[in-house]
Design goal:
Helices cover 70% and strands 0% of the residues. It is an all-alpha fold and 140 residues long. It is elongated and about 60 Å long.
């Protein structure tokens, strides 16, 4: 039977989703890193607790995580491309709406923290948690 979801983790996850909308860049990145480390730790613990019942699901977790990482990278590349089209170029293009603004401005901040980046970080953290559990399993 699955253990209950950690309420602090769920709160932190929802906080990160909210931060994508608010886009306060420094706190967003900081809480994102903490969430990824926490996700990695919880994944490792969950896999360790379910060693005896893992079977094919244990092999499926890294495959799905890597496939999702690829999907979210694709989504991010599309997001960057679409933003470039909307702004008519980037900060070094004279025809761009953000010409000479610098890379940190109100129009391009969404490049640094958005849903594809959040979901990529969570998927990658699950994959790293699986690797950590795998290393611990092989040592014991």
């Amino acid at each position: 039977m699955m253990k209950r979801i950690h309420k602090p983790y769920l709160f932190f996850l929802l906080w990160n989703v909210l931060m994508v909308g608010l886009l306060v860049l420094f706190p967003s990145i900081l809480t994102f890193i903490i969430l990824c480390i926490w996700t990695m730790t919880l994944t490792r613990r969950w896999l360790n607790d379910h060693r005896d019942r893992s079977g094919p699901m244990y092999a499926l977790i890294p495959i799905v995580a890597i496939l999702l990482c690829g999907l979210f990278i694709f989504m991010e590349v599309q997001f960057i491309h679409n933003l470039g089209e909307q702004l008519n170029g980037y900060t070094n293009d004279p025809d761009s709406a953000v010409y000479r603004f610098g890379w940190l401005n109100q129009y391009t901040n969404t490049l640094y923290y958005n849903f594809p980046i959040l979901l990529f970080g969570l998927s990658f953290s699950i994959f790293i948690g699986w690797i950590m559990e795998r290393i611990l399993r092989n040592r014991s």
